[in-house]
Amino acid sequence: MTRHRPITDPEILRFIEKTLASYPADAADASVQQNRAYYDAMCAVFRAPRPAGLRVTDAFLGGVRCRLYGPDTAAEIVLYLHGGGFVLGGLDSHDDVCAEIAVATGCQVVAVDYRLRPEHPAPAQLEDAYAVWRALDKRAVVVGDSAGGNLAAGLCHRIRRLGGTMPLGQVLIYPDLGGDIGALSYVENAEAPLLSTAEVAFYRSLSSPEARLDPEQCPLSAHDLSGMPPAVIFTADVDPLRDDGPLYAQALKAAGVRAEIHNSAQLVHGWLRARHGSQRARDVFAEIVGTIRDFMSGQDKAARQAAD
């Protein structure tokens, strides 16, 4: 019997089928370069056209290649860190997501083309994210999906340790925060359609054992979360990583940090690419956009709830 939470939503089932069609049966045995090609081709299948009139430029910030969406005159910035297990993806894989966030929020979005593993072992990815953050000089929210969610949370820890202005908020989308691989969601969703527990273990194996004790690489290992920016975490119910989000939110709250968790039934890891073909995904993406706007205005939902 397949081990994952049930999925009955026909739009999500079609999304899963369409995604898997991009990967041959022997993809697990292919090289890193070949898997990158499969991943890029899959992302291209779902990529939506950029909104008309949006200014997009590539530039180097802090010595790191980035893609900027929206005018330089925008008062606020969204720093976006893409997913892909630290091995896959880049500026093109999440191009449409970043473009749509820029238009919907009115902010400039800065997507980071951080170095990938295994050619560039950790913490090269975090070093790149921090270098870009140091180069920014505007009010900013940090957003990341999957491995990018790990980077977004880790970046906040590094900023606190090494200095710099903290983000106004952190938006973590189905993040890998280093949870125990024997925890409930890793067992319950061990064979989830688009990310299995075995795949999580593989991606984590590319880090050193010491990384499990470093809150900048494994945020759930942190003993001190005081001073972190407020967080809103979006998890997918059919995802081994699901329980990382509520555990991190609970730890943040225990340290006096505002945190909010949204778990979406029937959604799977990588659902961002389903936002134009699934009403569930479309609705949650709208919530993410609204959360970014609220952080920029200083009126995030968690703060409003705390005031009530």
UniProtKB/TrEMBL annotation:
TM regions (residue ranges): none
Listed Gene3D superfamilies: alpha/beta hydrolase (3.40.50.1820)
InterPro entries: AB_hydrolase_3 (IPR013094), AB_hydrolase_fold (IPR029058), GDXG_lipolytic_enzyme (IPR050300)
Signal peptide: none
Keywords for this protein: Hydrolase
Domain Alpha/beta hydrolase fold-3 span(s) in chain numbering: 78-272
A GO molecular function held by the record: hydrolase activity
Protein name per Swiss-Prot or TrEMBL: Lipase
Species this chain originates from: Neogemmobacter tilapiae
